[in-house]
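Duplicate of #3305? Posting structure anyway:
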């Protein structure tokens, strides 16, 4: 049984405004996606929320925070539809993602160190930078949860 991510991108005009769901052109021609990080990648899951982080070898950007109280109605409804099957809900702003030190070294099973950026891969950073097209990094965020 695998684990899947349900991820949505929200934006707001300012910190005084409400969040609203927005979409972008992420993914590929073959596998289009409207939100970043929508593929089944356990390295990304571990980094975003400590999910499927076997032996705790991938650092988690920020421990899971739960579902945001100020999420937009559409995202909230989708989360509630998953009821008991959803786990590890959280959210991260683009600013939090951009300010992380991706140069931190991680050792593989054989003890060979390499930077986290190599583990996350080029696609992760491409999609993170595409999020900049949607506004100020403090006003762009991802809301996500997982199911098995």
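Output from current build:
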């Amino acid at each position: 049984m695998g684990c899947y991510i349900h991820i949505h991108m929200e934006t707001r005009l300012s910190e005084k405004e409400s969040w609203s769901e927005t979409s972008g052109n992420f993914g590929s021609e073959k596998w289009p996606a409207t939100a970043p990080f929508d593929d089944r990648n356990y390295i990304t899951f571990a980094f975003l929320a400590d999910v499927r982080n076997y032996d705790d070898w991938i650092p988690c950007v920020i421990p899971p925070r739960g579902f945001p109280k100020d999420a937009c109605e559409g995202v909230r409804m989708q989360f509630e539809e998953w009821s008991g099957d959803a786990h590890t809900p959280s959210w991260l702003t683009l600013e939090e993602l951009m300010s992380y030190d991706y140069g931190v070294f991680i050792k593989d099973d054989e003890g060979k160190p390499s930077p986290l950026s190599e583990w996350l891969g080029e696609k992760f950073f491409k999609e993170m930078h595409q999020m900049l097209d949607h506004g100020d990094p403090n006003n762009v965020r991802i809301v996500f949860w997982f199911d098995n």
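Confirmed duplicate; merging threads. The CA atoms of residues 93 and 141 lie 4 Å apart. The two ends are 7 Å apart (CA to CA).
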